[in-house]
Amino acid sequence: MIGCFPDHGAPRGGGDPVPDPGQDPPGDGSQSPPKIERGPHKMSDVHVEPGGERVWIVHHGVGDLGARPNVLTAHLGVYVPDTGEFADVLDTTGTLGKRILFPGTGRVLYVTQRGTDRDVFVSLDTVARRPLVQHTYPGDRDNFRVSPNGRAVISTNKTDRRLHVLDTTSLVDRAMPADILGADGVAWAPGEDMLYALRLRPVTQLVRYDLRTADLGNPLPPPAVIAADACFDGSIVVSADGRYLGVGCIAADDSRQVSLIDAMTGAVTTVAGDSVSDFTRDGRAIVWHTNAPEPDSFPTTDFRLVDPATGDAAPTVVTGLVFPTARPLRDHDIVLVDGADQSDDKHNPPFQYHTVDGARTPSAQSAAFASSLLERPGHDELWLWLEYRSLLTRYDIASGEMTTISYGDDSVDYRAASDDIIIGSFAPSLRRLSMATGQVVGMPRYLAYPSDAPAPYKLDDQ
């Protein structure tokens, strides 16, 4: 899940500050007391807890614009979709939220920034709704990624430009060795707390840190070297079964290649290509090749599906697109392809590529660039959230048609087990939407200003 916290200021949904209704004074007073004018009340993206029982958000607002100085109150709160209850849990005033993460059952990890050079981490019990531990560290971290089993969170510290590992139980944060290349290009093994990275030595090494039983409160154990080659360069991608890795490669003559590595044996298969972006459901690597541009035009990029064990490739899929993306589905043998079409007649629409037989079918609209995507379990349909358009759509895989479900909202997150979606609005409010019917379930839950009542807990002032 991707979380974002809008900057303080005018609400993205527009609208004026909401005044509280004034009351006439008792007796024969001829003048009403000054009305309280409130500032914008906004909320973060919605974040559904694994299992779907609870949804966590941060909301903030200025309770009285006439007060000097203005006080922007912020609370971390929890919403229970099945009952419609919303409760503020933690007062986070004075900080700017970064991420809401779920490292394990019954826990939420909130990351927020105090000032411009300190990151605050606080772990909470989601059932008891109380903080467990809090730590503050210097720096400015981003690109947070939880390990598959929740023991660790990795992030990139923009201050020291290094990869950091956080123990989600003790909240001990440690910088990884400075010789890790491309701190944003590391990758977790699927389903296991093992981290792949490129390490700069006399020869670049692809290494694996085994964090499954490591004491994350102490320096990390040395990694295992999986393969070594001076040409390794770029981000690492991992197949869904964890068996194969893909990484770009710059040969001695500066030509681009792609290395496909067996994570068990360390065997390396090198194929022609500019980059590798992912693996399909059947385990083949998506390898890209850029075509030389025509005069006064941008280069287009095509891809091949390559068997990582043998290097055998299927026929090239000609996209005719500029800056294309290929998004493989996990429950269907389909890759969604889209990009910019520079042709005069715009004859290169987004399409589905069927990996079993190589067929391609057009899509009515873009699906590959969705901010988030859910393959609805047991159905041939996708639910897509396009954040840049505030648009929620339902995509029929069989026909390629896309149906608009909701427009103009702030954020969405999915509850696959309940077959519904939680929507956060600019109001701000929360509501449920059934994936079966596309209709709202129950009444929206509007949020009271965080300044109306104190939260039961407050961040330590560190």
Any overview of this molecule?
The protein is an all-beta fold and 462 residues long. Helices cover 0% and strands 48% of the residues. Strands 23-24-25-26-27-28-29 form a seven-stranded antiparallel β-sheet, with no helix packed on it. It is globular, with a radius of gyration of 25 Å. The protein has a domain at 1-12 and 37-141 and 405-462. The protein has strands at 41-43, 47-48, 55-62, 72-80, 85-91, 96-104, 107-114, 118-125, 130-138, 141-146, 152-157, 162-167, 173-175, 180-181, 187-188, 194-199, 205-210, 224-228, 232-238, 244-250, 256-262, 268-272, 275-279, 285-290, 301-306, 317-328, 334-340, 351-354, 360-362, 372-375, 381-386, 391-396, 402-407, 411-415, 420-424, 429-434, 440-446, 457-458. It has no helices and 38 strands. The model is unreliable at 1-27 (pLDDT under 50). The two termini are 28 Å apart. Strand 36 (429-434) and strand 37 (440-446) form a beta hairpin.
Topology of helices and strands:
Blueprint: E1 41-43, E2 47-48, E3 55-62, E4 72-80, E5 85-91, E6 96-104, E7 107-114, E8 118-125, E9 130-138, E10 141-146, E11 152-157, E12 162-167, E13 173-175, E14 180-181, E15 187-188, E16 194-199, E17 205-210, E18 224-228, E19 232-238, E20 244-250, E21 256-262, E22 268-272, E23 275-279, E24 285-290, E25 301-306, E26 317-328, E27 334-340, E28 351-354, E29 360-362, E30 372-375, E31 381-386, E32 391-396, E33 402-407, E34 411-415, E35 420-424, E36 429-434, E37 440-446, E38 457-458
Parallel strand pairs: 5-38
Antiparallel strand pairs: 1-3, 2-3, 3-4, 4-5, 6-7, 7-8, 8-9, 10-11, 11-12, 12-13, 14-16, 15-16, 16-17, 17-18, 19-20, 20-21, 21-22, 23-24, 24-25, 25-26, 26-27, 27-28, 28-29, 30-31, 31-32, 32-33, 34-35, 35-36, 36-37
